[in-house]
Design goal:
The structure is a homodimer. By secondary structure, the first copy, chain A, is mostly helical. Chain A has helices at 12-28, 35-41, 46-53, 56-81, 85-89, 91-102, 108-115, 122-144, 150-167, 174-190. In chain A, 45% of the residues are buried. The A-B interface holds A 27-29, 31-32, 105-106, 110-111, 113-117, 128, 131-132, 135, 152, 155-156, 158-164, 166-167, 169-170, 172-174, 177-178, 181, 185 and B 27-29, 31-32, 105-106, 110-111, 113-117, 128, 131-132, 135, 152, 155-156, 158-164, 166-167, 169-170, 172-174, 177-178, 181, 185. The structure holds a DNA duplex. Chains A, B: InterPro entries: Homeodomain-like_sf, HTH-type_TetR-like_transc_reg, HTH_TetR, Tet_transcr_reg_TetR-rel_C_sf.
Chain lengths: 192, 192
DNA sequence: TCGCGAGTACACTGATCTGTATACCTCTCC
DNA sequence: GGAGAGGTATACAGATCAGTGTACTCGCGA
């Protein structure tokens, strides 16, 4: 469940490989990107890629884990920056706003799950962990803020969040709509 | 925008190809499934597949269009079966409940968009049309029911719907949570 | 000075990919 | 009875796929 702490430090070439692969996988899809292209983009030989990661599947998992680590960092920062416990509950939606201003191809983890149906794929676990972590974070924050029914509220906020990020590429204003509704839900659950 | 009406009728072999391909694409991902496997599964030669559809990309679009047609039928039936104009607004969530009891790999159209980033891909258009149609249907139904702010309400319902279907494979109860919240939103927008 | 880890260079395997060529069969409809 | 549409059978082209083998270079630390 923990993300990023147990990862071995990357060599310079390993770093470049992950960076290039992460971008390519996100922009074009995982299955559609070959290891030859990743090696070329990162200025590295295919031999080095396989010496570092062993297989394409492992590289996919490493890329998702790295993205998850970076995303959780942003979410935690948004939570820490919020002015009150109630505000903290919707802080992930603030992080989402800045996140989607950079990444306009939807959620990399949902996209990965679309391409990796096999639960034994190492990337599958990383993606599902990212989702469960967010749902649990909502519950934790809702409980800390003294919201009524924190578990049900957390699931609602989670669904809203995922719907927003998944439909963001359609440019229908879903991120703003979801954030507004989320704030209303938290406000309603905090009154009394 | 219209779905299914302008499609040429399929030959028996064409029918089997679409059926087999639709299932394989959904279960394993579009890029991961080759035309040889589709031909084998549908008991047809590859020659016939290419005589019918011309290319894999066209077949992908045909499969998505067929799925869209079937899904809209179910949604329209749910709308027609609802007891009141207010109930009709959340009818797509009822259709979603039965839809996701059959299909547990999330939304085929969001999954397709994850794999087909190129807007020139014929399947890309089919998928985005499906999404816009649903959002517009929500607005139409909300307007007919006399809801306040039908456009903003429609976007909220749409985000909820997409979040539910996208996260349904995670088994976190998102479909029920989304349906409940949707009903509350419509009720709140109908009072007065 | 020596060993070792990191990385390069490059050829190569075997499988799989989309798509095509050619020849033939069978049914229906005019 | 002849044409054409729908389909079969099979072989093939050319590219790309993930992954390996082998021999080399460079820099650093014991």
């Amino acid at each position: 469940m923990d993300s990023g702490s147990d990862a071995p430090p990357l060599t310079p070439a390993g770093r470049r490989i992950v960076d290039a692969a992460e971008e390519l996988f996100y922009e074009r899809g995982i299955t559609a990107v070959g290891v030859d292209l990743i090696a070329e983009r990162s200025g590295v030989t295919k031999r080095t890629l396989y010496n570092r990661f062993g297989s394409k599947d492992s590289l996919v998992a490493a890329c998702l884990a790295e993205r998850d680590r970076r995303w959780r960092e942003e979410v935690r920062a948004a939570v820490a920056a919020s002015g009150s416990a109630e505000e903290a509950v919707t802080a992930p939606f603030e992080a989402l706003r800045s996140w989607t201003s950079t990444y306009t191809r939807g959620c990399a983890f949902l996209n990965a799950l679309a391409e990796l149906p096999d639960p034994r794929h190492p990337g599958h676990r990383v993606a599902t962990d990212q989702k469960r972590w967010l749902r649990d974070l909502f519950e934790e924050l809702a409980t800390a803020a003294g919201c009524r029914g924190p578990s049900a509220l957390a699931t609602r906020l989670f669904v809203l969040h995922e719907g927003a990020v998944a439909t963001e590429p359609l440019a229908l204003g879903s991120v703003t709509a979801a954030a507004d509704l989320a704030r209303e839900l938290v406000r309603a659950a905090s009154r009394g």
